């Protein structure tokens, strides 16, 4: 950890807790700041805030009183989930108080360089792949951010011998002022999070912040098959390294004649890669580029690509029973994610789908259902998905109470060679607390069949 004096006796407000807020408050306290924590959850229901209070940190809970900003704060560290149109944030902006997110703090104290990954889809898989490749290549990686320990905690333990691999959201990237990853990756860009950002342009601009402070000494890996991401790469000061599933890239990663290449180097035959799906091939290409730029050997990269079966709940291979292969894609909480999952397989599919009804239809799925022989539905959206399955000409459509009951029904209506795929196209909250809980129930139900 770098010994910085920037925060000694500095009055800082940590706005919003959760893991990132707790991490930021603890780090700032360690750095000598006068820390006040403000969280909306009442203190009696807030063990995180109680723990900070016991350390002597000032804690104000139960609401976000705007008048708190009159106390002379020099900096606000904002929970990424709090939008900028929040009343408290707007008042802080009017007062000219700088606002950052926890990842900026982590960067300022870290001795280790960062590999940072963002994008609309594929962040978690790409981050995990890079971590595994660096680990196989003995590069002492540490994983941080949305899929690991919060960055400010990881950065305190990291040395110059480590590399921090971090997944970043657009929310986090709006709160950086110096963050400069050695390698940045923009996997792709689609319209998303408009309730937070307001417009597509604001969302894309937030994502582009990942390269904002990079220099000519850094690398920016971008999707060469997407005009929007490639344009951001061309405007970056960093060395732009494109990846493509369609075209040769002299300075990047690409597919040619059923092989994966980095620059002029043949890495692996595509058929030897275990992780299925065209969208995952994009994730793999960007991960390979990052690994090669970190001097990971081809042998280590190949070792990962021939054994890595996916991140949990993201098109995760569970196993095979009597010729049927089971995949858990519970993270597919929207139609686009399910479309990508369906395109990953050429064999007949038994699709398990349904969940929270957000008022949308599912007709967009119809072109992607040509390989689906049976649909098993559950949850609030069951009738809507059944209607779409009928439109697509699927003959076997079955409704069950929940995911646990869907698994044996799907098995009964399948044959050897089929894929049984949980890819709900819906959020889980009508029946399950999280998509992780839904996925775990699916996994357990599959194991019961064995």
UniProtKB/TrEMBL annotation:
<keyword id="KW-0132">Cell division</keyword>
<dbReference type="Pfam" id="PF02875">
    <property type="entry name" value="Mur_ligase_C"/>
</dbReference>
<feature type="domain" description="Mur ligase central">
    <location>
        <begin position="117"/>
        <end position="291"/>
    </location>
</feature>
<dbReference type="Pfam" id="PF08245">
    <property type="entry name" value="Mur_ligase_M"/>
</dbReference>
<comment type="function">
    <text>Cell wall formation. Catalyzes the addition of glutamate to the nucleotide precursor UDP-N-acetylmuramoyl-L-alanine (UMA).</text>
</comment>
<dbReference type="GO" id="GO:0008764">
    <property type="term" value="F:UDP-N-acetylmuramoylalanine-D-glutamate ligase activity"/>
</dbReference>
<keyword id="KW-0133">Cell shape</keyword>
<protein>
    <recommendedName>
        <fullName>UDP-N-acetylmuramoylalanine--D-glutamate ligase</fullName>
        <ecNumber>6.3.2.9</ecNumber>
    </recommendedName>
</protein>
<keyword id="KW-0436">Ligase</keyword>
<dbReference type="InterPro" id="IPR036615">
    <property type="entry name" value="Mur_ligase_C_dom_sf"/>
</dbReference>
<dbReference type="InterPro" id="IPR036565">
    <property type="entry name" value="Mur-like_cat_sf"/>
</dbReference>
<dbReference type="InterPro" id="IPR013221">
    <property type="entry name" value="Mur_ligase_cen"/>
</dbReference>
<dbReference type="Pfam" id="PF21799">
    <property type="entry name" value="MurD-like_N"/>
</dbReference>
<comment type="pathway">
    <text>Cell wall biogenesis; peptidoglycan biosynthesis.</text>
</comment>
<keyword id="KW-0067">ATP-binding</keyword>
<comment type="similarity">
    <text>Belongs to the MurCDEF family.</text>
</comment>
<feature type="binding site">
    <location>
        <begin position="119"/>
        <end position="125"/>
    </location>
    <ligand>
        <name>ATP</name>
    </ligand>
</feature>
<keyword id="KW-0573">Peptidoglycan synthesis</keyword>
<dbReference type="InterPro" id="IPR004101">
    <property type="entry name" value="Mur_ligase_C"/>
</dbReference>
<keyword id="KW-0131">Cell cycle</keyword>
<dbReference type="InterPro" id="IPR005762">
    <property type="entry name" value="MurD"/>
</dbReference>
<keyword id="KW-0961">Cell wall biogenesis/degradation</keyword>
<keyword id="KW-0963">Cytoplasm</keyword>
<keyword id="KW-0547">Nucleotide-binding</keyword>
<feature type="domain" description="Mur ligase C-terminal">
    <location>
        <begin position="313"/>
        <end position="426"/>
    </location>
</feature>
């Amino acid at each position: 950890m770098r010994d910085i004096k920037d925060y000694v006796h500095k009055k800082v407000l940590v706005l919003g807790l959760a893991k990132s807020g707790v991490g930021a408050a603890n780090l700032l306290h360690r750095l000598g700041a006068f820390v006040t924590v403000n969280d909306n959850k009442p203190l009696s229901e807030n063990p995180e805030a109680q723990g900070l209070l016991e350390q002597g940190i000032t804690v104000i809970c139960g609401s976000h009183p705007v008048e708190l900003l009159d106390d002379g704060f020099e900096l606000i560290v904002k929970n990424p989930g709090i939008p900028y149109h929040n009343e408290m944030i707007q008042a802080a902006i009017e007062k000219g108080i700088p606002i950052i997110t926890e990842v900026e703090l982590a960067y300022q104290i870290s001795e280790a360089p960062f590999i940072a990954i963002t994008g609309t889809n594929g962040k978690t898989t790409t981050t995990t792949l890079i971590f595994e490749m660096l680990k196989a290549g003995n590069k002492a990686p540490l994983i941080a951010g949305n899929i690991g320990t919060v960055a400010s905690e990881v950065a305190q333990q990291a040395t110059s011998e480590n590399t921090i691999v971090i997944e970043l959201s657009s929310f986090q990237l709006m709160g950086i002022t110096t963050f400069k990853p050695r390698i940045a990756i923009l996997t792709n860009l689609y319209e998303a999070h408009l309730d937070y950002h307001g417009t597509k342009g604001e969302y894309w601009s937030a994502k582009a912040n990942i390269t904002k402070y990079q220099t000519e000494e850094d690398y920016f890996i971008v999707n060469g098959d997407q005009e929007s991401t490639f344009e951001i790469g061309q405007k970056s000061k960093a060395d732009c390294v494109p990846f493509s599933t369609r075209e040769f890239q002299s300075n990047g990663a690409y597919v040619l004649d059923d092989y994966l290449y980095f620059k002029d180097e043949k890495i692996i035959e595509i058929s030897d890669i275990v992780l299925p799906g065209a969208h995952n091939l994009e994730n793999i290409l960007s991960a390979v580029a990052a690994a090669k730029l970190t001097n990971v050997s081809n042998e280590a990269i190949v070792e990962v690509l021939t054994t890595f079966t996916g991140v949990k709940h993201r098109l995760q291979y569970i196993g095979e029973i009597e010729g049927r292969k089971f995949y858990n894609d519970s993270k597919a909480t929207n139609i686009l994610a399910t479309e990508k999952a369906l395109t990953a397989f050429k064999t007949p599919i038994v699709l398990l789908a349904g969940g929270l009804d957000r008022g949308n239809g599912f007709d967009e799925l119809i072109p992607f259902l040509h390989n689906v022989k049976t649909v098993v539905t559950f949850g609030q959206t069951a009738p809507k998905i059944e209607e779409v399955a009928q439109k697509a000409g699927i003959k076997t459509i079955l409704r069950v109470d929940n995911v646990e009951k869907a698994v044996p029904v799907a098995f009964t209506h399948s044959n050897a060679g089929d894929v049984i795929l949980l890819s709900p196209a819906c959020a889980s909250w009508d029946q399950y607390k999280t998509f992780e809980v839904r996925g775990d129930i699916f996994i357990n139900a599959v194991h019961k069949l064995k």
